[in-house]
TrEMBL record:
This is THAP-type domain-containing protein. Pfam families: THAP. The lineage of its organism: Eukaryota, Metazoa, Ecdysozoa, Arthropoda, Chelicerata. Transmembrane segments: none annotated. It comes from Rhipicephalus microplus (Cattle tick). Residues 101-141, 285-304 are annotated as: Disordered. The keyword Iron does not apply.
Amino acid sequence: MPTCCVPGCTSGYRNDTSPTVRHFFSAPSDERLRAAWNRAIPRADKDLTTKSRACSIHFHDQDIRKTYVHVINGETVEIPRGKWSLVEGALPKVFPNLPSYLSKPAQKRRKRQRESNGNADQGTASPQSQASCSTIPGDVVVDHMPEPSAPSFAEMECVELPPSWQRITVENGSGKFAAFFTLTSANKAPQIEKCVVVSSDGVATASARGREAKAFLSVSITTMLDLSDLINKVHSLHACSGYDVQSSTGFSLRCQALAKQSTCSFCRIEKKQAFEKEFSEAKKAGVQTEKGEKPSKESHQGSCCESVFHEEFGRTTREIDKRKILINQ
């Protein structure tokens, strides 16, 4: 688990007793913005690196994206984000464990409006100049932040793709979509191995071998960097190959579709359970033969299954049991 780099903060450490869930943000890769983080965080012993993390309590709410915002049938719908992100240019400004003077208030955005045309001797400005030079009284503050728009399909055509990836724009009865995918050959016929689909409203989903990747459902794409990061993330993962044992073949109902290994954790657990079931049945068949019954074909297969079980999972049982604990949590 990451730890917070802000002095006095215990987020991520063993002595952290806070009941609230902390989200962590990486220090910017952009050197100028990372230098601004260095100036904002009161820490003189060392500078931040791209591996440094700051937790969510050090940012104002308006600087954190906690939900995906969509407009469906004219209504604004907000969906909670599993992983929070920061708005562009956000800086850590809240330090509850340090002297209060070190914290900075949130900056409120002002929405400019047109001045009243009270002075006739100033002449009449054109609509363009009125719009560009408009102001509002100093006591009027609007906190609404404009929602970012999705990249156009023409812009998506320019995104840099990883090796072997292709792109295509599709328009059908459901709307217009941009698809980015990589192919694989199965039985001499090309099939889509991994795919990222982006709709016109900037909502992206990822899939692998025809199954939706649950970790990449309804991802909001507001910049070309968002799109590039998503495609590269999907590219770095493996399409889950499922499980294949003597009595059962397929995928777990909770299959993640994309995983760091060739098989996702849920399918690995499913495979282990299938082997355990076969092992148990084979063991029962072996007990029956010890009582004087004629050894059956199933009994012979059971002994083979037992050896395969120990060979296949003897080294990974502890790892999978740990995954079970994490999943149940």
